């Protein structure tokens, strides 16, 4: 675990899910991404699903902004929603051009089972749960991407074909954004009841499992079986 200003909730949540993070870090998709040997077909599947995911993730972030109890939280999650839809989409568009993916292809590609499950969970949580639980559910997407990005950045060659992805998620700008979300989760946990803190931990763990499912689905190029 890395990052400055980590408080009690985030320390506990990361420690409770450390083994799951290690499973994610070493899973075949991320190992091949780091080595630069990930097949174009698998990355294409991933980038299409991730582009769909970011739209729904942006909606969940916007709902977190609406539920935030103070102006700082409103600004934090409203900006995060904008970045998910606008800034990170620019990264995807570069890969879309490289893979010959046009708007029609994107629109015609259904959400994979893992993407559909992940977004359904985040949006249901964002609508139905209190702010602190919503933030806990959103945190793994930020935090795990940062740690995976840093890990891959440390061992990827300069000519890795997925260098743009690696530099984005392993870079300092993304790391600082993640620190702000960690701080928001810790601040929310301070005022939460024991029951709500328990729900925060369940939300963090469930979203972490869904992170694994998303990458595993991309590795298997998984679609709907029926």
Number of strands: 0
The CATH architecture designation is Up-down Bundle
Which regions contain 5 or more consecutive residues with pLDDT less than 50? none
Under CATH, the topology is which?
A: Heme Oxygenase, Chain A
Biggest sheet details: none
Percent strand: under 5%
Helix content: over 70%
Shape: globular
The CATH homologous superfamily name equals: Heme oxygenase-like
Structural class determined from secondary elements: mainly alpha
Rg (C-alpha, Å):
17 Å
Question: What string gives the helices and strands in order?
Answer: HHHHHHHHHHH
Short recap of the structure:
The chain has 226 residues and is mainly alpha-helical. Helices cover 81% and strands 0% of the residues. It has a single domain, classed as Up-down Bundle (Heme Oxygenase, Chain A).
